[in-house]
Amino acid sequence: MSDSVMKRLEADREGILARLYAFVRHPSVGADPAYADGMRGAQDFLLGRLQAIGLGNVQCLDAGGQPAIYGEWLDAPDKPTFLIYGHYDVQPPDPSEKWVTPPFEPTIRNDRIYARGISDDKAPSLIALETLGAFLREEGRLPVNVKVMLEGEEETGSATLGALCRRYADLLAADAVISADGARWRADLPTVIVASRGNAGFEFTVTTACKDLHSGRYGGAVPNALHVIAELIASFRTPEGGIAVEGFFDGVEPLLDHERSALTHIPFDEKQFYLQLQTAPSGEQRYTTLERLWLRPTLEVNGLWGGYTGAGSKTVIPNEAHAKITMRLVPGQDPERVVEVVKTHLLRNSPDGATIAFGETRGGSRAYLLPTDHPLLAAAEQALTETLGTAPIQVRMGATLPMTDIMARELGIQTVMFSFATSDEDYHAPNEFFRLSSLEEGLTAWVKLLRKVGEQSPTDYRQQ
Amino acid sequence: MSDSVMKRLEADREGILARLYAFVRHPSVGADPAYADGMRGAQDFLLGRLQAIGLGNVQCLDAGGQPAIYGEWLDAPDKPTFLIYGHYDVQPPDPSEKWVTPPFEPTIRNDRIYARGISDDKAPSLIALETLGAFLREEGRLPVNVKVMLEGEEETGSATLGALCRRYADLLAADAVISADGARWRADLPTVIVASRGNAGFEFTVTTACKDLHSGRYGGAVPNALHVIAELIASFRTPEGGIAVEGFFDGVEPLLDHERSALTHIPFDEKQFYLQLQTAPSGEQRYTTLERLWLRPTLEVNGLWGGYTGAGSKTVIPNEAHAKITMRLVPGQDPERVVEVVKTHLLRNSPDGATIAFGETRGGSRAYLLPTDHPLLAAAEQALTETLGTAPIQVRMGATLPMTDIMARELGIQTVMFSFATSDEDYHAPNEFFRLSSLEEGLTAWVKLLRKVGEQSPTDYRQQ
After folding, report:
1. Are A56 and A137 within one domain?
2. pLDDT for res B464
3. Do B280 and A363 count as a contact with CB atoms less than 8 A apart?
4. Measured distance CA(A449)–CA(B358) in Å, rounded
5. Inter-residue contact B150 to B69 (CB < 8 Å)
């Protein structure tokens, strides 16, 4: 390894780990106001880091929600400009009691660091910052112009990212986005992601009476909010595992033969996949598992609650029940329209005596598809090939990065995902972790990527 | 009012209210170990009261669960002996935030006392004790022999009451039970209850994978525990509102013409019933509301939870979901068998990739039907007629008093419900209350009842 920037990064492993730990110890759960201090702590940490590594114009970008943290280095006038994206907000740690070690106290076991947010997206984001810092300290400059933006609302659906892009459109103008978010598909297979599903979601409440009622005194005569909500959720699915909501598939094109065929060439051990998860296939039976994961939309209940949930029993007919729903969308689906058809389905299927109230709509991103001839994709594939010793396979992703859709719509630029998280790292579940080996791979690949794009010209991008 | 015992009770209203408040302030929630101090407080209060009013042999009866509190007065050798039943445990106060005033701080508004447990069953139980106390102080004796037993497990299904009756069979031997529990049907219609439904219940957990999974990375390919539990709950019901569980109705006789006809003579404003509850009819459409409430069994989910239930959203496919179930049973149904057929239904309808685990079975009482020629029923009807100025109508009750079934099986004696609670008093919901007017009625009616049964002979009962 003759690259001096890489050598500097190699020599600074302890410092990098210490900074990563400090970042992760801020419990920056954006979904829950109880964690407001953690959000502020992570923001302050990043403002300090961006200044320390030598970026300028460091500031909070505010569009009414959690601010994004911004910094820039723009002293390469004949080079392309990249918006480097990451996020500092994390998923809630619930269920907290299932963590082996405390969620906000990073702990190494078996060459993995365990902590909430370590994989999604604090380690991948910090890898980008550390690489920029090493370049600036070692060489006094970067190979390209860089604008760093670290979002604070990724885990809550990027509610104000669109407004933020509009408000700061000039500040954020760039040739393409390099995203430190968007985890790699598998630990055993080098891949690069060229598409992702969109999303949308909302919460609803079923009310069946003016109050909870005694199950003996009223049982048999009145509706039970828990039965009503269960029947509504059951009505979302066909007996064959498909989605039964009228209008849900409007705009979705039938899968093309070449799309289906491409998936059959991807190494994927379906049996092992289900064995590891200790479950069995579910969903639309006429599609393969990879088709269901990448090319078909979903409708999932993420939370469901009502009635007595404490110790022992309480013989009550609950009058209220609640559910949180999210959907994953494919090209052709409009998030707002999908939310509307699901709400209409709920209202239509609600029985006499029950009323439905809808909470705020969350998310709302279209699916994303990267043009396969994009120059940043080519540079990323080369950097990964050199880092990992083998060429990555182009794959799709079932998850959503709302920013891909927002950046394309608001700033007119494409995103390449260059995260070093891996999708098995339990990042929306207890015991989230990040592989120490991915830290090595990430730092190496980021150095290589910045050098590759440093050989490109802005005109390569303006032809896009 | 020439009855000197009544006069004494009348003069002591403030003392009675003060003792009722002291009783209610003990948060005796038996379902939740967090309230252990409240249970002990209520037990100590009752031990003190039974001694203070002049009962002997005061003690805790223990069969491994929450103890029952016992006291006796047996100095009327030629008179019948009655077991006076009540209970001191109460429902959990959840959802606590819906209480207008704190659940364990009794508060009078609009001639009603609001507090958890005031109606079920602390005021009705205390009315019985105060009446006994007034007789003993005023006349130095009671009109009949009395054994008082106040249970501590009524709200949790009377799990050890059967064992307790077996262990203390000699101590508890009596001619009949007068129950201070078993609320009156309506505030506007004098009634006496001659039947009640049985009950049974259990909790179950659905598991669909080894851990929570990300809804983007896995959505479409794997089962979701919340969808599985929703579909299982939906499968309990037929499209017509009946119960679809195979074997559930085994042993249930078709309704007899005279049973159906009797119900049509009971004044019941169905429209007003649903209007007040702000809901609509639900359940088996080929039965009337009263038939569904009194003569048909039910299956209700009392609690349902899983996934993310905090603020905001979490895009998770939950791997675990939980439900609490109770059933109300009619004559012919065996509680153990009904629990088994519902469990079998769940196992049969569980999809691939899901497993079901069952928690402890709770409750388990058969339905109860009082012989209409019972001498205690006649005495109760007379006492109520004199107190209220109009003869009570015989009605059934949809709720369960496990003790009615347990006393019949273990001690071989029948129970007459002589509670002065009313079924609209929200006793399993927030803002439980008890009417101050019911305190008057109850004290008067208990004096009259004790004088009536004092005119009866033990042989009246032994012919039963």
Report:
1. yes
2. 58
3. no
4. 54
5. yes
